[in-house]
Design brief:
Blueprint (H helix, E strand, L loop, with lengths): L1 E14 L4 E2 L2 E2 L4 E3 L7 H14 L4 H4 L13 H13 L3 E10 L9 H12 L6 E6 L5 H4 L3 E11 L3
Parallel strand pairs: 5-6
Antiparallel strand pairs: 1-4, 1-7, 2-3, 5-7
Helix pairs in contact: 1-3, 3-4
Bound molecules: magnesium ion.
Magnesium ion binds next to strand 1.
Amino acid sequence: MVHVGIGYDVHPLVEGRKLILGGVEIPHAKGLDGHSDADVVMHAICDAILGALGEGDIGHHFPNTDPRWKNAASKIFLQEAARQATFHDAKIVNVDATIVAQQPKLGPHMHAMKLHISQALGLNPKRVGIKATTNELLGFVGRGEGIAAMAVVAVDLPS
Ligand code: MG
């Protein structure tokens, strides 16, 4: 039986932080602020997987009050979500994510993001879709105050 999950995340852009999206360090004047590396794409995908499994959310598994996750690379969260899927005897069918960022241009980094995400999940890169859009200068994303990401995941669970 195929189950689907949805994930959404947003983090503020601030000076003095690296910008990490989909596990890739992207040159930019600002980076995303958060307890971990604040990789919104990986966080959204992680929540989508946990949602499909009925296993709560990323904040439940990796509380931002836990010093173990301070500045943690978010691939750890994806690896744990994949472990949870295995624990449920489930197979991740595919992942699709959209990043909403006014800047910087993400096109040149999409392929590397896809590889990082598929590696963390132990998935064929063909099963991972990553897309990016601007917010047409509207709202907090359009003003460059933050970056958002959303993801859906399909998981094949034994019935
Ligand atoms: Mg997050």
